Amino acid sequence: MMKTFILLSLALCLRTAAPLSADTGPFAPGLIVTEYPRHALQANEKDNFYVPLDQLGQPIGEKYITESLTPWKWETERNAVASGFLEIEVDGDYSFSTHSFYDRNLLMIQGEVVCAFRDGDDTVVTIPLKKGGRVSIISAGFVGGRGASGIHVRWKPPGQAELSPIPARLLSHVDDGSLKPKIVEKEMKRSNGLLATHLVTVTDDFVVEAYKNGVRIQESQRTLLNEIFGATVERMAVDVRPGDWLVFHVVNNHLRWGGAKYFAVAGMLGTNDFGFVSDPASEAWSVCDDPDDVRDFIRRRDEGTEIRASPIAKPWEEGDEHMRQNAGVGFPGKSLWGGGASTWIKFVARKNHPKPATLPVKEVTQSVPKAILKQTRWPVQILYGMYGSGDKNADVTLRLKEYVETKKEWFAVTPAALGIDPIPYWNKSLWIAYVKDGVRREVRRYENEHVLPESFYGPQDAPELTKWLPETRWRAEKGELQFHADHTATGYGFEGLPQWEALANNKMRITWADGRKAVYFFDFTWSSFREEGNEKATFHVMK
User: Fold this and answer.
1) Does residue 368 lie within any of the structural domains?
2) Which terminus of the chain, N or C, has fewer Cβ atoms within 10 Å?
3) Within this chain, do residues 431 and 500 fall inside the same structural domain, yes or no?
4) 122 with 409: CB under 8 angstroms?
5) CB of 472 closer than 8 Å to CB of 375
């Protein structure tokens, strides 16, 4: 009933709300945020939070600018709408996803609802857009959505592999003279002596705990923005001023990825607006590797600062790119580490801490290598899914299509994941029939088994692996390999031209120039392969 009410309300909103016009101009950076008081419909917080946009009433307070949609924030006890325009640079399909507390938000593009109120944090919706102009964009948050934590809007434009923040340079609003530059948020922050209102960290592998002035930063202040084969990208809601100090406990498994590791952080006032960045050449960064000394290192600002942080001899090669994607393309910082796989890294914000100079966009884009050719993905269609035991089965086709075709995410063979229990307290199995690349296939999975989307989209036999592998690149401790359609491989660190042959959907043989032959097996997601009987000879896909 609630869902029906929301859909009807959204339809009414679309009919009655005045659409934004991109024809007036002139344009200025950022979106306009307008706040509204708590509505009568929201009197009962246990049930009602949504209000149709055309019924929000009269605005309250002054309008202001948000430069970013990852996140944008508003007064917690109010409703708010961020509106303006999004510039589209290329034709194609664009995917969008939104996240906030209990997903109490909605996103509209060109007057159409893309991400509906409470449609699920994991929902990703794809729409076609044309280049050459601006499309209207509206992001709305509501009372009960914890405006202080904000709404994270992410997208995946054509040619991009993963969701990421929308670049601030693509967001704009019509400058009608009612908003003056002095109210831009970042200028207010600087006048209050702030070096940062939030942090962005990229770590291979992850941050265990983080501390400000000796006090642990709470989980509610930390948001996981991305996870890449164990490496992590985080956003931490922390104000930093001169005199403050931060400590990060970071860890790395040196047995993975040939010992590569990475840690970088940006203290930020806004996208591409840095108050400080990680830099092993700066005296502001120090480390502690002895657990016996950690307590004082965390609690006392100047304790242990004589031990400087160090550059990383073998940094994770994708780390800098993830910093640019999440902090801004002009990120001027560098990665650093201590002496052990588990280390504590401290930053001390001294008085008159110098503001880092943002790298020019032209310089950054020229230094970023072009993406390699991506592996082929064949379309998959779920025909049916039957879940149960004996003659007691339930049709879960629609739920499977959601997991496999729409979200492309893993799921477990459980009543909770599949949304029904046809025979409680009995072990059940799941029969799936699907079509891939024009071929009908069936598979059976058992109770509590995890089902990966790659098991449908990945190569199903040796001929498909033969089509999938060419022009992919892989790395191991000894060097890199790139496979070619003529069944040769080239790479740094290897002599001659090895020959490769697909033996099964997850198995191949490589014959090296010296006559040595080795059989390799791919993992369940085709993101790595290892030599049979030699786990140290493991190759990982390069994105």
Assistant:
1) no
2) N
3) no
4) yes
5) yes
Q: Evaluate whether residue 354 is within a structural domain.
A: yes
The one-letter amino acid at 387:
Y
Regarding whether 532 and 446 lie in a shared domain, the answer is no
Question: Chain-centre distance of CA 279, in angstroms?
Answer: 24
Which of 399, 428, 457 is the C-terminal boundary of a domain? 457
pLDDT higher than 50, residue 235: yes
Domain C-terminal end among 148, 183, 218 = 183
Shared domain check, 467 and 453: no
Q: CA nearest 472: which of 532, 521, 513, 526? A: 526
Average pLDDT over every residue of 18-34: 70
Q: Which domain holds residue 511?
A: 462-541
Q: Mind spelling out the 3-state secondary structure of 235-279?
A: EECCCECCCCEEEEEEECCCCCHHHCEEEEEEEEEECCEEEEECC
Does a structural domain hold residue 367?
Answer: no
Q: Which two tokens stand for residue 116?
A: 């509906």
Query: Is residue 535 scored above 90 in pLDDT?
Result: no
Strand partners, 347: 246, 285
139-193 residue pLDDT tens: 999 988 888 788 999 999 998 888 889 998 899 998 876 665 434 444 444 445 7
Residue written as token pair 């991009």: 160
* Together in a domain, 27 and 118: yes
The pTM assigned to this predicted structure is 0.40
- Residue 486 near residue 500, CB atoms below 8 Å: no
Residues 469 and 421 in one domain: no
- Number of domains the chain is built from: 4
- Within this chain, do residues 323 and 466 fall inside the same structural domain, yes or no? no
**Helices within 359-461 (DSSP H only):** 361-367, 397-401, 415-418, 454-457
CB atoms within 10 A of CB 196: 24
How far apart (Å, rounded) are the C-alpha atoms in residues 271 and 171?
A: 12
**Residue 253: inside a domain:** yes
The pair of structure tokens assigned to 462 is 């040796």
Distance CA 311, CA 107 (A): 42
Total count of residues recorded for the chain = 543
